[in-house]
Specification:
alpha/beta, PM/HMP-P_kinase-1, nine-stranded mixed β-sheet, UDP-N-acetylmuramoyl-L-alanine:D-glutamate ligase, thiamine biosynthesis, phosphomethylpyrimidine kinase activity, Ribokinase-like, 9 helices, 21% strand, single chain
């Protein structure tokens, strides 16, 4: 028998269209050579045009899934995505706090690619006070930065202010994703910092509207690197390279925004 690969658990919602959420997480993990496991927090009716319905799971169901996986199989890294409500955020945060020594990547999902809300406004304070303090890396995009901190980022100096504000809530590292910066720069820039060292990550901006699942994919790729034992900066750089390729290969699906291509390296 082969030895088991590194184990990564995603705690997130389901995307019935397959481009984001649990589905994107598990595809990313498979592509990057780790074993993906899942705790489902919500079911969405979703396609390339938007989110048409959301049904959250009870906290007991989320807790039971987590305990079933972690207590028997174990885990080397956890990634969180859509948590939807304050009770679910607090439930997941408590589970993570009770799993010491395991790196956690928090993608504080607030809205879908189509602008549909995926986190109740009443849950924002729970994200700030319960979830971010247990994060090894928090990966907000600029809209999520504004939701959490009130800071509107318009340039790289603003990204630095945003990172400081996110770090004040307790994560060890903040990865501020600059893909939504205004303008049409030829490069996309992200900032990774722990408040002491800074890593500015640049990649070419691809002229491709099919970007559904980008945030989920990046956070899952970072978690996969951490599960392999990579230090945070190297895990993030490798994740950024993987996502850049997936963005370039994103494809049309349905009538709206298609997904990134999680298998781009295998089809290259």
């Amino acid at each position: 028998m082969s030895p088991a690969p590194p184990l990564v658990l995603t705690v997130a919602g389901s995307d019935s269209g397959g481009g984001a959420g649990i589905q994107a997480d598990l595809k990313t993990m498979l592509a990057l050579g780790v074993h993906g496991m899942s705790v489902l927090t919500a079911v969405t009716a979703q396609n390339s045009r938007g989110v048409h319905g959301v049904w959250e799971l009870p906290e007991d169901a989320v807790r039971a899934q987590y305990r079933a996986v972690v207590d028997d199989i174990g885990v080397h890294a956890v990634k969180t995505g859509m948590l939807a409500t304050a009770p679910l955020v607090e439930t997941v945060a408590a589970l993570l706090a009770g799993t010491p020594g395991v790196p956690v990547v928090v993608d504080p999902v607030g809205v879908s690619k189509h602008g549909d809300p995926l986190l109740a406004a009443s849950a924002l304070e729970s994200v700030r006070t319960a979830l971010l303090p247990v994060a090894t890396v928090a990966t907000p995009n600029l809209d999520e930065v504004t939701q959490l901190t009130g800071i509107v980022v318009e340039d790289e100096a603003g990204m630095r202010r945003a990172a400081d504000a996110i770090l004040a809530y307790g994560p060890r590292w903040a990865l501020i994703k600059g893909g939504h910066l205004p303008g049409d720069a030829a490069e996309v820039v992200d900032l990774l910092t722990d408040g002491t060292e800074e890593h500015w990550l640049y990649a070419p901006r691809h002229d491709n509207r099919h970007t559904h699942g980008t945030g989920c994919t990046l956070a899952s790729a970072v978690a996969s690197g951490l599960a392999k034992g990579l230090p945070v900066p190297k895990a993030v750089r490798e994740a950024k390279a993987y996502v850049t390729g997936a963005l370039a290969a994103g494809f049309a699906l349905g009538e709206g925004i298609g997904p990134v291509d999680h298998g781009w390296e295998h089809r290259r």
